[in-house]
Amino acid sequence: MIEIKSLSKSFKKVQAVNGLNFKVEKGEVLGLLGENGAGKTTTLRMLATMLKPTEGTASINGHDLIKESSQVRKEVGILFGGEVGLYDRLTAYENIMYFAELNGMNKTEAAKSIDYLTEMLDMKEYINRRVGKFSRGMKQKVAIARSIVHSPSVMLFDEPTIGLDVTSSKIVQDFILKCKQDNKAIIFSSHSMNEVEKLCDRIVIINKGKIVEEGTKDSLKHKYDNPDLEQIFMRLVGGHNE
Ligand SMILES: Nc1ncnc2c1ncn2[C@@H]1O[C@H](COP(=O)(O)OP(=O)(O)OP(=O)(O)O)[C@@H](O)[C@H]1O
Ligand SMILES: [Mg+2]
């Protein structure tokens, strides 16, 4: 379970995240929406312990983000879109193993998990090849395996399908639904309302680091008397950011 409490981050000139409060339960996919620069990535990077909040905190399964950051790291899996940051000279297997060991897994445990994921993601053909020449989709599968090898109970997705073709996007979307089935607490950020409609249970819309609206998909559609999430989103934040 994720509980975000007055979470804030300011950079020198920008208040990127400004007093966010929300919860995500197990088995729930929360869509974090907002225009470019709204503070989504900054929020997710803080939850992944990659960035330190300037104020507030969050708890992951009762562990405090700041005071127990190493425990939090073990319980969180991240899949961010764009360049996925694998080591080109290592094989897919070695990349995942390296990350598993960084997360405190022993080799036997990690090997078992990697074998399972290789099967699940259909990576047998290339699991022992160096990733340098892999296609985007192949790399994304390795990144998926890496994000979950340590069996985290919380998953953070930041535009995970950006730049992927239809088939690779579908693999990522199915993976998110599998995480939901496995009862993980999930935050998913995307600019695709199609994906949001397909994957999310509840939505938090932020603008300039603050929540402007939140609710289940149905409650928002009902409140704004509009079946189209995109139109609701545009009405709430469209054109507000420079
Ligand atoms: N390392 C940093 N140093 C200074 N400013 C930053 C830094 N990271 C983010 N920001 C600023 O914080 C604000 C929020 O950025 P963030 O990347 O969180 O937005 P986002 O909602 O993820 O946008 P997008 O949809 O474009 O990915 C922006 O104004 C951005 O310029
Ligand atoms: Mg972003």
Automatic annotation (TrEMBL):
Entry keyword set: ATP-binding, Nucleotide-binding, Transport
Superkingdom per UniProt: Bacteria
PROSITE patterns for this protein: ABC_TRANSPORTER_2
ABC transporter domain boundaries: 2-233
Annotated coiled-coil segments of the chain: none
InterPro entries named in the record: AAA+_ATPase, ABC_transporter-like_ATP-bd, ABC_transporter_ATP-binding, P-loop_NTPase
Keyword Nucleotide-binding attached: yes
GO molecular function: ATP binding; ATP hydrolysis activity
Keyword match Nucleus: no
Family: Belongs to the ABC transporter superfamily.
PANTHER family, A to Z: ABC TRANSPORTER ATP-BINDING PROTEIN, ABC TRANSPORTER ATP-BINDING PROTEIN NATA
Name of the protein described by the UniProt record: Sodium transport system ATP-binding protein
Organism: Clostridium amylolyticum
